Amino acid sequence: LLSSGTKPAGLPGTSTALPAQASQISTVQDLIQNSEYLIRSLTSPDLFGDERDGIVAKLNQLLSACGVGNGYYKGDQQPISYTAENPFYQFKAIGYSRRSDYCDSDGIIALTLGINYEQLSRATQRQKFIDSMNLILGNNTNVRAHIELIRPLPDNQTEVLLYVTEKGKGRSSSKELCAFLKQPTQDIQLKSQLCVVNILPRTIVDDAKKHAFIKNPPAGTRFDSQIWQQAVRENPDPDKLLPYPIRGFEQLRKRQELQAAEIRLEERIVEELNQKLMQINSKLITGQNQCSYQRQRHKELSHRLLRCLAMQSLLQQYTISIDSAEEKLETRLEALNASLVAPDQIKLC
């Protein structure tokens, strides 16, 4: 009897199950009734009983497509409110977001900070951030935090990608590091010391989750499944991009600001690379000039050394007596000279 759902009054569970069921029925009825009112306001409003009702219907259709205002459908009834959640809302589209290239073993996590990017743009500021992270990690000399990337976000926020290495073990996994930093003690320290507002592991979406995501439109977006599947088919790079629903100007503005922030980050990186390139070129020119100077100096010293060796050789000749080899050479030269000056030899003028 109890399992059949017909519990007598007073038994445990009767006071909660019946109101919940009634609430669910009421919610479904409200949805059906609101849908009926919405359709009537767009197709057949009954306000004036003449052609003006058709004009009101067109106005309601425009307001519904824009997701603003109220739609009147009957003189003695309250108007229905048009929001961006109504099925006839037209300002929606599908964009594409890049998939992460990091694996869980890479240990990359994303910290969203409620501070401006300029507060972390210098090397000294980033080192202070790393020192604070090391303290939060327990101030263990074997465990150290490292910054992978810092990028600006809209609303004066900054995203920091970092990973943690442990001596002898390598990098900690993204899930382990994220779970550790979300503990109450570490979470309070991150919020108070580094203004962290969000922590997420930055890992790649596996194929199973990817296929489950693109199979149907995300819940709550009210996108037509055919439009969603068309976006999936027309994905310019299915391996690196995922379709992303955009609903309303606010979400579009948010993505535009993210894209603008990414462009500014790339411009900063290019500017930093140009500055480093100029410094390297300056050092290269200085090195080439120094090399030319040292080469010329080497030649001068070589010539001076040769002169010194020649002078030393001459000085040695004055201090050393003639040896037997030189005496033999002298004897041969004298004999050769005597043969040349003999009477029967040809005289050279």
Automatic annotation (TrEMBL):
<dbReference type="GO" id="GO:0006999">
    <property type="term" value="P:nuclear pore organization"/>
</dbReference>
<feature type="domain" description="Nucleoporin Nup54 alpha-helical">
    <location>
        <begin position="223"/>
        <end position="347"/>
    </location>
</feature>
<keyword id="KW-0813">Transport</keyword>
<keyword id="KW-0175">Coiled coil</keyword>
<dbReference type="GO" id="GO:0006607">
    <property type="term" value="P:NLS-bearing protein import into nucleus"/>
</dbReference>
<dbReference type="InterPro" id="IPR025712">
    <property type="entry name" value="Nup54_alpha-helical_dom"/>
</dbReference>
<feature type="coiled-coil region">
    <location>
        <begin position="255"/>
        <end position="290"/>
    </location>
</feature>
<keyword id="KW-0539">Nucleus</keyword>
<dbReference type="InterPro" id="IPR024864">
    <property type="entry name" value="Nup54/Nup57/Nup44"/>
</dbReference>
<dbReference type="GO" id="GO:0036228">
    <property type="term" value="P:protein localization to nuclear inner membrane"/>
</dbReference>
<dbReference type="Pfam" id="PF13874">
    <property type="entry name" value="Nup54"/>
</dbReference>
<protein>
    <submittedName>
        <fullName>Nup54 domain-containing protein</fullName>
    </submittedName>
</protein>
<dbReference type="GO" id="GO:0017056">
    <property type="term" value="F:structural constituent of nuclear pore"/>
</dbReference>
<dbReference type="GO" id="GO:0044613">
    <property type="term" value="C:nuclear pore central transport channel"/>
</dbReference>
